[in-house]
Amino acid sequence: MASLPKTMKAVFIQKTGGTDVLQYADVPVPEPKEGEVLVKNEYIGINYIDTYFRSGVYNPPKFPYILGREGSGTIAAVGPNAPSDLSPGTRVAYLAQHAYAEYTSAPANSTVPIPDSIDTKTAAASILQALTAVTLIRDAHEVKKGDWVLVTAAAGGVGLWLCQLLKSVGAHVIATASTEEKRNLAKANGAEVLLEYHEEDRNLFVKEVLEITGGEGVHAVFDSVGKSTFDSSLAVVRRKGSMVSFGNASGPVEGFSLARLAAKNVKLVRPTLFGYIATREEFQSAAKELWSFIEKDGFNVKIHDVYPLSDIVRATEDIQSRKTTEWARANCPEDSARLPAPRSYEFLRVDFTKGKLHIGSISRKAKKKTTETSKVHFILNRWRPGKVFIMEDNHDRVDESDYHNIKLHEPFSWIWPSLSDPIGMEKFISLINYVFELKG
């Protein structure tokens, strides 16, 4: 440890909140404990789950808390009893807390050497989401050549990896995504059939999938959307197939009768990545399979952008506004620029009566009274996700401009009762940011 610096740059929080709670400053370089290795980071992964820890949806174990959960770089030092294949100078990728820093002390059990043929940027863009996809098609449901597989949200991070992996093993991929642009992206990454999910007529979606598969249905569904797609996804699984539910983008799946599974002997799986790679042997096995896929098949590892660590606010904004259909990565080390200050409020208007969402700019200055009572205004500070102000139209008239209408993917009632709850609040913000690219 003598040759290592005593301090390093890191991004951390002293409390939960919006992006204004992010701090970029010097902190002590950690010393690897038994069974750990100290990695000098070259690239770190930026994932949506990081915003949950920052905002308080998930509770950080203690403060100050350095964010981040994956990265790649070179081992700078090792703790006692570190494995022999993890020695100083070895290029590695890892899954561990506190990645938003120049150095991270990572457990050896979740650290793996990077082959010479793969660079550290590609490794950092692969380790979390791609390993998730590998375990889904290998452990949650073993996909075989010729299988029909449905992937929802196929243009997301895990979705794009699934499309490529499934094509690599010879499966037929049916992909759904929210826009034509995203569906085309899924096609470019291996999807064979593109479908628009019909929220208003789910029977039409089921009919289309059954027609494509000769009336049999798919061998497996990999669904990261949750509540809004679960019923129709389960309906298109063939006899002895698998329904793999690994996400809740539209909300948690509601309760249902297990008799629905018995009708076709369907297997329902709710997997997590870390449940499949709990031991070093499991982690190494999955990682080696991933490296093999990348080396053999020349996977398309797209990276949305590379940010300096000091620009973590902009990176977080892009993640939260759903600009990133690919993978975002921060690069270390970097300059010591200050974090930008929080921006102005975002204003939203919700019309419950027509089941539509109206979004646009609303003046902060109240105008004359109005007799309208059917609309409620949410004044949402985008940079402090826990703060929402409610104003009814019959109290004040507000100026409105540049409004857009869109039908909600879900009835708005599932969000409304939860606005006082941090998790409900995060769902609300996620939906808004998913539908629109909010302007600061």
Automatic annotation (TrEMBL):
This is Probable quinone oxidoreductase. It holds the Pfam family ADH_zinc_N. SMART domains: PKS_ER. One of its GO terms (cellular component) is cytosol. The keyword Oxidoreductase applies. PANTHER family: QUINONE OXIDOREDUCTASE PIG3-RELATED, QUINONE OXIDOREDUCTASE-RELATED. Residues 17-325 form the Enoyl reductase (ER) domain. Keywords: NADP, Oxidoreductase. The keyword Plastid does not apply. GO terms for molecular function: mRNA 3'-UTR AU-rich region binding; NADPH binding; quinone reductase (NADPH) activity; zinc ion binding.
